[in-house]
Amino acid sequence: MSVNVFYDPRTLAELRTALASMEGEGYVVAGCTDFLAKRNGKYWHADTLVSVANVAELKEITLHEDRLTIGAACVHHQVARNEYVRKYFPGLADACGNVGSPQIRNRGTIGGSLANSSPAGDMLPALLTLDAGVVIADGAEGDITVKLDDFVQENGKTILRPGQALAFIELPLPKENRVCAFSKLGERAYVTIAKINTAISLEVEDGVIRRPLVTLGAVARRSFFSAAGAAALEGQPLTEATFDALAAVLAGEIEKAIPTRETMPYKRAAIRGVVDDLYHLLKERAGV
Ligand SMILES: Cc1cc2nc3c(=O)[nH]c(=O)nc-3n(C[C@H](O)[C@H](O)[C@H](O)COP(=O)(O)OP(=O)(O)OC[C@H]3O[C@@H](n4cnc5c(N)ncnc54)[C@H](O)[C@@H]3O)c2cc1C
């Protein structure tokens, strides 16, 4: 490898200056678990490399009156253990707590996962159901806030431009009756890339489900909201029968998303187990 200039900013202000100075072939990196894996031991070159790993503000999780702010450089282990994440967003704690291995969870960041935007990544399906927004630090133009759904495009692409870094993830605090959960299926229990990852958030009001959000990951070029899945839950009681019906709808979504992929019949059947996990988690969290 060869790197002409390496910036290791310690504050957000220093990061903005470094971003504004990026020239030529430049990369923003964090834990490098994906960045180096993608280069696969081969020679690579960067004119400018900017690390966000030591930016103090980006390593913090802060509770505000109306939202939780998670710095992009927070590692999965930190997010999974955080008391506010566990209290308000246990679905995100589920997702971060199951990423890779302890080594990956101690090194890989939540921001790196979103910037990498792998179709099988666990952060996107979990965070979409939490109505997440992201703050982009731009060396020249200042901060830009967008919905996460608009930030991630397809197959490893985002709207980030040269001279920009993902700085924060913003999660509006949920209503008291809103619960969320995440579940994934892989080949092994640990260090496994998801074959399916699914998240749900919903409110339980007068005994029925209201305003559900359902996402499906690892079955398309990007995790997506399932409107049909949400419709199967809206107005229904939080029961096994309702989630059986949801599983049938999501099986149909998978068939539609990857009709010719050879793993489709397996994924179409396996979604039932993932939905069953979600049912039990949501039922427990909703206390019904
Ligand atoms: C063995 C192994 C197992 C894994 N298991 C899982 C798993 O179970 N679930 C899962 O979801 N992922 C998994 N991953 C993927 C990966 O670890 C995570 O996506 C991780 O969170 C990436 O974070 P990072 O800080 O290491 O990113 P990096 O590798 O540093 O960066 C990843 C990409 O994002 C860019 N980038 C990083 N941070 C920023 C930023 N703040 N702003 C702009 N661009 C940025 C980099 O340029 C690069 O393109 C695994 C990876 C490995 C190697």
What's a quick, concise take on this entry?
This protein has helices at residues 12-20, 33-39, 76-81, 83-88, 90-97, 102-107, 110-116, 123-128, 148-151, 227-233, 240-257, 264-286, and strands at 2-7, 26-29, 45-51, 61-63, 67-71, 133-138, 142-147, 164-172, 178-185, 196-205, 208-217, 224-225.
Description:
The chain is α+β, with helices and mostly antiparallel strands. It has 3 domains: 50 residues, Uridine Diphospho-n-acetylenolpyruvylglucosamine Reductase, domain 2 (2-Layer Sandwich); 117 residues, Uridine Diphospho-n-acetylenolpyruvylglucosamine Reductase, domain 3; 109 residues, CO dehydrogenase flavoprotein, C-terminal domain (Enolase-like, domain 1). The chain is built from 12 helices and 12 strands. The strands form 3 sheets. The chain has a 5-stranded antiparallel β-sheet. Helix 11 packs antiparallel against helix 12. The structure holds flavin-adenine dinucleotide (FAD). Flavin-adenine dinucleotide binds next to strand 2, helix 2, helix 7 and strand 8.
Which labels suit this protein?
four-stranded antiparallel beta sheet; Enolase-like, domain 1; five-stranded antiparallel beta sheet; alpha+beta; Uridine Diphospho-n-acetylenolpyruvylglucosamine Reductase, domain 2; Uridine Diphospho-n-acetylenolpyruvylglucosamine Reductase, domain 3; binds flavin-adenine dinucleotide; 288 residues
The averaged pLDDT comes out at 95
Any guess at the CATH architecture of the largest domain?
2-Layer Sandwich
Number of strands: 12
Give the CA-based shape: globular
**H/E series, N to C?**
EHEHEEEHHHHHHEEHEEEEEHHH
Strand portion = 25-35%
Task: Report strand order across the widest sheet.
Answer: 4-5-8-6-7
Extract low-pLDDT stretches: none
CATH topology group of the largest domain: Uridine Diphospho-n-acetylenolpyruvylglucosamine Reductase, domain 3
**Biggest sheet statistics:** 5 strands, antiparallel
Number of domains: 3
Q: How far apart, in Å, are the first and last alpha carbons?
A: 56 Å
Separate helix tally: 12
What small molecules does this complex bind? Answer: flavin-adenine dinucleotide
CATH class value of the largest domain: Alpha Beta
Indicate the structural class: alpha+beta
Output the radius of gyration: 19 Å
Helix content: 25-40%
